[in-house]
Write a structure and sequence with these properties.
17 helices, 12% strand, four-stranded mixed sheet, globular, five-stranded mixed sheet, alpha/beta
Length: 404
């Protein structure tokens, strides 16, 4: 998850009605079935070109023409609403994985079983993200997740090994805090980014979004409170996006950070810093690190044009093939969703090893709550803000957040 996607309340309320009206609608683009439309939110470079090249290569292989539209991520859902209303939905629609179940619930997407597509060989977490009421509606070529980055020089100077447990994290962060340099940085901002960064600590500790008032969830939040209160993490984390966290790390103001592999190109571009990465620390040794899956799924809307849907299915199949997954993962510092590719990918991209391991046990954010996930995400980041600003204890923050 590179950034949160803002969805207006009005759009959420209108979504079921607007998309349900498109089921069985007139064809999206009409005419030649060998020309299909695609819409995604990769509107910034270098992703725009990388994804575009993959689409073009697949189209050439299949023998079709693709007309692609890119929109800013924050505008995608509103665009979907507008197109649903005018019956002009694209033949292939890319969605951020937490949005798939919400859109599928409206009846606006085609079940992949009807198109001969399945998710065999893909990471289970991403299959869960694309599944609604037992039907698969989306597939992803690659995924991303979170890990712990560390400044090798700073840790070596203190004789510190990368922390694997919460106690080790607190100890290392304290030892690495000096002057304007904090031991660790993370994003606790009041957006979905803050919730996303908290999930590895909550899930690994046995906490669950179905009961945010559990002791396991409170214990994870207390870790963040302790890091901030002790001065090992800046109290500015409540305002930092993940990009801000990366900037703090690059500026030498944080010796460690929680972040994702999409930051690696920026890290590699700075020759002054030598970095490493490990999985997110666990509470107790022996626990399995569980982090959230980020990434986008390719779906096929209900347009009413069977010829175009057949070609759309071939395009999605090509985009999630072994060759395409490896190419996109290598270019974009993401992880192939096909688990059989893990070994070859790590051999080619050794800096991604921790993230490949993290994806093996990563979870879909919508796996438990489905289309209700956004409510839980809001409660999570609200509780984080309450606790880190001293307005509530870690034990009371989630109940207070739920009460509004």
């Amino acid at each position: 998850m590179k950034k949160s996607t803002a969805i207006a309340s009005a759009a959420i309320l209108a979504l079921p009605l607007a998309l349900a009206s498109c089921s069985g609608s007139t064809p999206s683009s009409g005419g030649d079935g060998d020309t299909i439309t695609v819409m995604d939110y990769y509107n910034n470079e270098p992703d725009k070109t990388m994804i575009g090249e993959a689409i073009d290569e697949c189209a050439a292989t299949i023998g079709i023409t693709v007309k692609r539209t890119t929109v800013p991520g924050k505008d995608l859902i509103q665009k979907v609403l507008q197109q649903a209303s005018s019956k002009t939905l694209p033949d292939v629609l890319m969605l951020d994985n937490p949005d798939v179940q919400q859109i599928a619930a409206t009846g606006g997407l085609t079940p992949f079983g009807q198109l001969g597509l399945d998710g065999s060989g893909s990471a289970q977490g991403m299959i869960d993200a694309g599944t609604y009421e037992g039907e698969l509606y989306g597939l992803a070529p690659t995924a991303n997740t979170l890990g712990l980055f560390y400044n090798k020089k700073l840790l070596a100077e203190k004789g510190i090994t990368p922390p694997a447990t919460w106690d080790e994290l607190k100890s290392a962060a304290a030892a690495l805090t000096s002057g304007d340099q904090y031991g660790v940085a993370f994003s606790a901002i009041a957006t979905y980014e803050g919730s996303w960064q908290f999930l590895p600590f909550m899930w690994t500790n046995g906490g669950d979004e179905t009961d945010l008032t559990s002791p396991e969830v409170a214990e994870a939040l207390q870790l963040w409170v302790d890091l901030v209160k002790s001065g090992s993490a800046s109290d500015g984390v409540i305002n930092w996006s993940q990009s801000d966290v990366k900037d703090q790390f690059l500026a030498g103001k944080a010796a460690m950070m929680i972040n994702g592999p999409w930051q690696i190109p920026a890290l590699d571009a700075d020759a002054s810093i030598e970095w490493g990465s490990v999985q997110v620390p666990v509470n107790k040794a022996g626990q399995t690190p569980v982090a959230p899956l980020g990434g986008e799924l390719w779906t096929i809307p209900q347009t009413g044009d069977k010829a175009k849907q057949a070609n759309a299915a071939q395009l999605v199949e090509c985009l999630t093939s072994d060759d395409t997954e490896m190419k996109l993962a290598t270019q974009r510092f993401t992880v192939p969703v096909r688990t059989s590719l893990a070994g070859d990918y790590v051999a080619e991209m050794p800096s991604m090893e921790a993230f490949v391991k993290q994806v093996e046990n990563a979870r879909s954010r919508t796996g438990e709550l489905g289309e209700e996930w956004p409510k839980a995400a809001t409660q999570i980041y609200t509780a984080i803000q309450l606790a880190l600003t001293g307005q509530a204890t870690a034990e009371d923050a989630f109940a207070q957040a739920a009460a509004g």
